[in-house]
């Protein structure tokens, strides 16, 4: 039996479409799961080799369900990411007219991406959240709702028709998906990589967040995501989910992580993996003083000073 990849199902989700862009997906059994936690738990239990889940969209930022699952529980690691352009279709049972749509459904992350369209076209429609956009389509098929926002490709799968297509409030909206597995050695650096971590402050004091971010700034590391999430320990207690440019094998990134390990209560490494938005040859030039060669040269200089050879 082939190894399996769990993903946010059911069949016909944007997650499935993005997953099938990975070459290795053709050699895996793709198993739809009812939720992001269920997909990640399948990896933790050993039922699946990896899980493929949404983690961020360009309209609302981080997908909190995914971030919270990666923050808590048995550690997991990100190995790949995929970007998918997102536009929605309004799926209905055949013959339904727009004036007959009184209830609509979709995944909660879809609502901010179609809010203005709803206001302009279905101002009185009642919104109910579904476990996924494809699950919303299934619920429309069953008669639970009048319409669902989902990918147009899901219409045939659920016997529906697209009443409207190309729905989006923001031009060029994208969702980022990640392939998550059990912890192991990260893949070799490509020259266009991303490192993800979760940070917990040791204590709350003025400038605490600045101290954390300073470990990246002084080493010329650009941040691509910074999102706070409650720890559950009370109001005002947060951890920080961060995506940074670079790979853990880069000297500047490794030194930043060492600095964070010294000053943080806890650091969770979520992986170093290739970026999906650029090719290695298009990566931005490093700031002067932040290349591996310059870090090695600086370390050699300190060693010479210690030996009296400066």
3D structure, described in words:
It is a single chain. The protein is built from nine helices and 15 strands. By secondary structure, the protein is α/β, with parallel strands linked by helices. α7 (208-217) runs antiparallel to α8 (251-263). The N and C termini lie far apart (62 Å).
Q: Shape from CA axes?
A: elongated
Instruction: Tell me about the largest β-sheet.
Output: 6 strands, mixed
Provide the low-confidence segments as ranges: none
> Rg to the nearest angstrom?
22 Å
Please report the total strand number as a whole number. 15
End-to-end C-alpha gap: 62 Å
The string of secondary-structure elements, in order, is EHEHEEHEEEHEHEHEEEHEEHEH
The fraction of residues assigned to DSSP E strands is 25-35%
Helix/strand/pairing category: alpha/beta
Task: Give the integer mean of the pLDDT values.
Answer: 93
């Amino acid at each position: 039996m082939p190894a399996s990849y769990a993903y946010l199902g059911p069949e016909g989700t944007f997650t499935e479409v993005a997953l099938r862009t990975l070459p290795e997906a053709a050699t895996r059994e793709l198993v739809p799961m009812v939720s992001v936690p269920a997909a990640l738990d399948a990896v933790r239990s050993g039922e699946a080799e990896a899980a493929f889940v949404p983690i961020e969209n360009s309209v609302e930022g981080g997908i909190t369900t995914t971030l919270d699952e990666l923050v808590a529980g048995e550690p997991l690691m990100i190995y790949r990411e995929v970007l998918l352009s997102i536009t929605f279709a309004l799926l209905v049972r055949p013959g339904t007219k727009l004036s007959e749509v009184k209830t609509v459904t979709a995944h909660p992350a879809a609502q901010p991406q179609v809010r203005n369209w709803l206001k302009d076209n279905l101002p009185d429609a009642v919104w109910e959240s579904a476990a996924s956009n494809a699950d919303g389509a299934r619920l429309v098929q069953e008669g639970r709702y009048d319409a669902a926002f989902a990918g147009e490709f899901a219409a045939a799968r659920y016997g529906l028709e697209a009443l409207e297509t190309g729905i989006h409030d923001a031009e060029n909206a994208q969702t980022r998906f990640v392939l998550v597995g059990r912890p192991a050695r990260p893949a070799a650096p490509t020259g266009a990589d991303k490192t993800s971590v979760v940070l917990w402050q040791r204590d709350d004091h003025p400038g605490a967040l600045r101290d954390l971010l300073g470990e990246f700034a002084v080493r010329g590391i650009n941040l691509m995501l910074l999102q706070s999430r409650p720890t559950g320990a009370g109001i005002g207690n947060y951890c920080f989910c961060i995506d940074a440019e670079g790979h853990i094998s880069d000297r500047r990134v490794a030194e930043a992580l060492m600095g964070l390990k010294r000053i943080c209560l806890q650091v969770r490494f979520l992986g170093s993996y290739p970026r999906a938005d650029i090719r290695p040859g298009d990566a931005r030039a490093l700031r002067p003083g932040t290349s591996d060669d310059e870090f090695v040269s600086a370390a050699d200089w300190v060693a010479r000073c210690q030996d009296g050879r400066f």
